[in-house]
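Sequence, please.
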C-alpha cells in the first residue's frame, strides 16, 4: 500500500522571510508578482530582485505598495535592485520609501539607468538623511557622474550610513573637492567603508584624498581606490612637492593601507576603552550622586566630610554605619573625573563627559532580573563541553555571533550603547600618537602615556 500523504517541501527557517532568486520579472506585471509573494508571508526581511527588468514602471508599482499602510507592516532590512533598468522615476519612488524608514539597513542599486537632475539628487540625499540606511551601493551607474556625486556628498548628513559604494560612477578630478570636504567634515566621520574604484580620478586627486584621510579622518576603516587611471604621477613640469602629490602610486597605496590600519587600531582602542571605563564610572559616580543627593523625604543631610571607619576589635564583628561611604566619593567631582580618565586613555573629553553622564544616571541601570523572553545569546555548539550543556548565555564565553551565522545579542547591545554615547569611533585628542609606527610599537607591548 502506498502512502497517499505527501510531505511538504522542506524550507529553511532563515529563508521564509527572504524573497529572492526570481527571474523574468518585467515591468508592472513583475512587480505585482513580487507584491503577491510579499502578501503571502507574515514577515519579509530581505528582498532580492537583482538581474530583472522592472524598470521605472515596475519600480513605481512595487514601492508604492511598500510605502502604503499595508506595505509598511513588513520590516524589510535589505533590498537589492541590481541591474533592473531603473531610471529617474523609479529612484524618486525609492526616495519616498526611504523617508522616515527605520528598518531598511541595506540598499543596493548597482547597474541601473539613473539620470538625476539637481532636484532629484537633493530629494534622494534628503531621503537617505531621513532614513536609517547603513549600507548604500550606487556602483556601476555610469550616468551619475560628477554632478550627482558632488551634490550628493555635499548634502549627505546622516549618522547611520557606514558603507558607501561609488565605484564605476564616472567621477573625475572635478569631484575631488567635494570628496575632500566630506572626509574632513564631521559628516564624514560616520563612514567606515568607501569604494571609489573604477573611476577617472587622476594621481593628484588620489594623493589629496589619501593625505586628507591621514591628517583629518580617523574613522574610515576600509577604502578601495583601484583602477582609476592613476599610473601617471602628474603632468610634465608639475611641482608635485608643492602640490602634495610627490612619490608614486605604489607608495600612495601603501600609505593608504597604513593609515587605514591606524584608524582600525584607534577605533578598536576607543571602543575597548569605553567598555572598560563604564563599570568603574558606574560604581563610583552613581554612589557619589547618592551620597550628595539624599532621597526625597529623607531628613539626612548630604555628606560633606569623610567618616572614619570604626576599629575592628578581635572579639566583635564590624558594625557598618549608615553614613560610611567610600572616600573617593567625597572628592571634588573634577578630581573624580580626572582620576577615571586614566582608565581610558584613548577617549576624548567629550566622550568622557557622555559616558560619565550615562553612568551616573540611575535610569540607565540594567534590570536585576534577567528577561524571561526576548533575544539572547545562542551558544556555539563547538564551545560546549561534550555531554555538559549550558543553560542560557554564551557557551563558555563563545556564541554563534563571531561565526557570522547569528549576531550575538550582547554584541548588538554593546554596539548600540557605543553609538549612543558616541564612542563607536575615535575622536582626535591631544597627547595621543597619530603616527602608525608609534601605534604599532605600542600595540606590540609598549604603553601609551597620556595626561588627561
Amino acid at each position: 500500500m502506498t502512502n497517499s500523504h505527501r510531505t511538504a517541501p522542506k524550507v529553511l527557517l532563515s529563508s521564509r522571510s527572504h524573497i529572492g532568486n526570481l527571474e523574468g520579472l518585467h515591468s508592472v506585471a513583475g512587480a505585482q508578482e513580487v507584491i503577491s509573494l510579499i502578501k503571502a508571508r507574515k514577515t519579509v526581511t530581505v528582498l532580492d530582485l537583482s538581474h530583472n527588468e522592472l524598470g521605472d514602471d515596475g519600480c513605481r508599482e512595487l514601492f508604492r505598495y511598500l510605502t502604503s499602510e499595508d506595505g509598511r507592516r513588513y520590516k524589510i532590512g535589505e533590498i537589492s535592485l541590481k541591474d533592473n533598468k531603473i531610471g529617474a522615476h523609479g529612484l524618486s519612488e525609492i526616495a519616498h520609501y526611504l523617508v522616515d524608514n527605520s528598518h531598511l539597513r541595506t540598499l543596493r542599486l548597482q547597474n541601473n539607468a539613473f539620470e538625476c537632475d539637481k532636484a532629484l539628487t537633493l530629494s534622494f540625499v534628503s531621503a537617505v538623511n531621513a532614513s536609517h540606511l547603513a549600507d548604500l551601493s550606487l556602483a556601476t551607474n555610469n550616468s551619475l557622474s560628477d554632478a550627482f556625486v558632488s551634490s550628493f556628498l555635499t548634502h549627505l548628513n546622516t549618522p547611520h550610513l557606514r558603507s558607501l559604494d561609488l565605484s564605476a560612477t564616472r567621477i573625475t578630478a572635478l569631484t575631488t573637492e567635494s570628496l575632500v570636504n566630506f572626509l574632513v567634515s564631521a559628516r564624514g566621520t560616520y563612514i567606515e567603508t568607501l569604494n571609489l574604484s573604477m573611476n577617472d580620478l587622476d594621481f593628484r586627486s588620489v594623493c589629496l584624498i589619501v593625505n586628507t584621510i591621514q591628517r583629518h579622518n580617523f574613522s574610515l576603516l576600509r577604502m578601495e581606490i583601484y583602477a582609476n587611471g592613476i599610473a601617471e604621477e602628474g603632468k610634465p613640469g608639475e611641482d608635485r612637492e608643492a602640490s602634495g602629490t610627490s612619490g608614486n602610486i605604489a607608495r600612495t597605496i601603501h600609505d593608504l593601507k597604513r593609515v587605514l590600519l591606524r584608524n582600525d587600531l584607534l577605533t578598536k582602542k576607543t571602543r575597548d576603552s569605553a567598555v572598560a571605563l563604564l563599570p568603574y564610572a558606574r560604581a563610583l559616580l552613581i554612589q557619589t550622586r547618592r551620597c550628595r543627593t539624599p532621597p526625597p523625604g529623607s531628613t539626612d543631610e548630604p555628606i560633606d566630610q569623610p567618616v572614619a571607619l570604626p576599629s575592628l576589635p578581635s572579639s566583635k564583628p564590624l558594625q557598618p554605619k549608615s553614613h560610611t561611604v567610600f572616600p573617593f566619593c567625597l572628592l571634588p567631582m573634577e578630581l573624580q573625573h580626572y582620576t577615571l580618565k586614566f582608565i581610558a586613555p584613548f577617549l576624548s573629553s567629550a566622550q568622557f563627559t557622555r559616558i560619565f553622564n550615562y553612568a551616573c544616571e540611575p535610569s540607565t541601570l540594567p534590570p536585576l532580573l534577567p528577561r524571561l523572553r526576548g533575544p539572547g545569546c545562542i551558544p556555539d555548539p563547538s564551545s560546549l563541553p561534550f555531554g555538559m550543556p549550558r543553560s542560557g548565555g554564551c557557551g563558555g564565553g563563545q556564541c554563534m555571533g563571531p561565526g557570522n551565522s547569528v549576531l550575538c545579542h550582547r554584541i548588538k547591545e554593546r554596539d548600540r550603547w557605543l553609538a549612543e554615547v558616541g564612542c563607536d569611533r575615535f575622536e582626535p585628542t591631544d597627547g595621543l600618537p597619530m603616527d602608525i609606527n608609534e601605534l604599532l610599537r605600542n600595540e606590540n607591548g609598549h604603553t601609551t602615556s597620556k595626561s588627561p
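The two ends are 83 Å apart (CA to CA).
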